[in-house]
Design a protein that fits this description.
By secondary structure, the chain is an all-alpha fold. The protein has helices at about 10-40, 45-65, 75-90, 110-130, 140-160, 160-180, 185-200, 205-215, 225-240, 265-295, 300-325, 340-360; strands at about 105, 110. Helix 11 runs antiparallel to helix 12 (about 340-360).
Length: about 375
């Protein structure tokens, strides 16, 4: 008798908890800015709901589509090609916020770099499964992957979007680590990255300013250090229990992008320490259950795919939380499921949908 396939209810529950937690906080964080910009306090919330509907459709579809059907070159390579083509297409469109990150469709827009993360994860999982016994071969394995990754990272850096480029490299490193890449390559990576760090960080004034502001934000409290100082003030104002939902003050044109990059600071101010602990706990559940689904997958493809998708979500969450609490230099990166932004929400929901499908086939 065939085994009945059941998905991971804990993984789904944590995801839904973050989504609806995010809806509450997006409204609270964006109401004042939305009113100032559009004359209505519900614009950002409305866009988030649209993104949620599309994201849930992707999640349900991915959850009910056997992930092994995606282990196919007729899917992997066209998907990757479309991602790269979209990364190129943004440079022929108008700039937004002085960058070429978005493709606008009427009132809505999406970031090709978000979709590219998924495309690369599927590519890594498919390509490395067939080369597990040659994982350390420079010619057969490493060089082809480096070429593909190098092209996509170069295009993302050109937008410019340094944070997403680093996230892509971290996801790739996690998948290669699980696939069995020798430690010598991981040791060589930081050394080889030093010239790129110098060229793309030290030589770029606004990025280098973020590092100096991270080291001593109080040296320029009204300039370079303003963002992180306002974020820390928000957390300090919240205390254990917070000042109350929608009662926060830092979102009133003190925090930059309170509905997006700094929404975790709004949570800290309005819902306090326990509000932030709840968010961290839900992401920890996703980490644990995502790794469990990957580890229990019946094949190497499911293992690598699961690791990549889990890293995609948790890496972004950890980075966002670290930025707003002053643990790493400021970098604009969304908090999955919670920050306002349709692209991130849709991609995160799709990633969880695939993880849920992998969990159904777990041994």
């Amino acid at each position: 008798m065939a085994r009945k396939l059941t998905f991971d209810k804990y993984l789904l529950g944590a995801t839904l908890g973050l989504i609806f937690y995010g809806l509450l906080m997006v409204y609270s964080a964006s109401a004042a800015i939305s009113t100032e910009m559009y004359g209505s306090s519900y614009i950002f919330l409305g866009k988030q709901v649209v993104g949620l509907i599309l994201g849930m459709a992707c999640m349900v579809g991915a959850m009910n589509w056997d992930y092994r059907k995606w282990r196919n070159p007729t899917f992997v390579f066209p998907f990757l090609f479309v991602c790269i083509a979209l990364l190129v297409a943004v440079f022929f469109l108008d700039r937004s916020h002085n960058t070429h990150r978005w493709i606008k469709l009427g009132l809505f827009s999406f970031q090709p770099s978000e979709i590219t993360k998924l495309g690369l994860i599927f590519f890594f999982a498919y390509f490395l499964e067939n080369r597990m016994h040659h994982i350390n071969s420079l010619r057969r394995t490493l060089l082809p992957v480096l070429v593909v990754t190098g092209i996509t990272v170069a295009l993302i850096l050109k937008e410019p979007d340094f944070g997403t480029a680093v996230a892509v490299l971290i996801i790739g490193a996690a998948i290669f680590f699980v696939a069995g890449l020798d430690w010598k390559w991981f040791a060589a990576g930081p050394v080889l990255a030093l010239p790129f760090f110098y060229w793309f960080v030290v030589r770029v004034p606004y990025r280098f300013d973020r590092i100096t502001a991270f080291l001593n934000p109080w040296k320029d409290p009204l300039g370079k250090g303003f963002q992180i100082i306002q974020s820390l003030i928000a957390f300090g104002s919240g205390g254990p229990w917070g000042v109350g939902w929608v009662q926060g003050k830092q979102k009133l044109f003190y925090l930059p992008e309170p509905q997006n990059d700094f929404i975790f600071a709004v949570i800290g101010e309005e819902l306090g320490l326990w509000g932030t602990v709840l968010a961290v706990f839900l992401f920890a559940v996703i980490l644990k259950r995502g790794l469990k689904a990957a580890r229990s997958a019946p094949d190497a493809y499911g293992l690598l795919l699961g690791i990549g998708l889990t890293t995609l979500i948790v890496c972004q969450a950890f980075t966002n939380m670290s930025v707003v609490t002053g643990l790493i230099p400021t970098k604009g990166i969304a908090l999955p499921f919670m920050s306002a932004g349709g692209s991130s929400l849709i991609v995160s929901c799709a990633a969880v949908g695939v993880l849920l499908n992998i969990s159904q086939h777990s041994d």
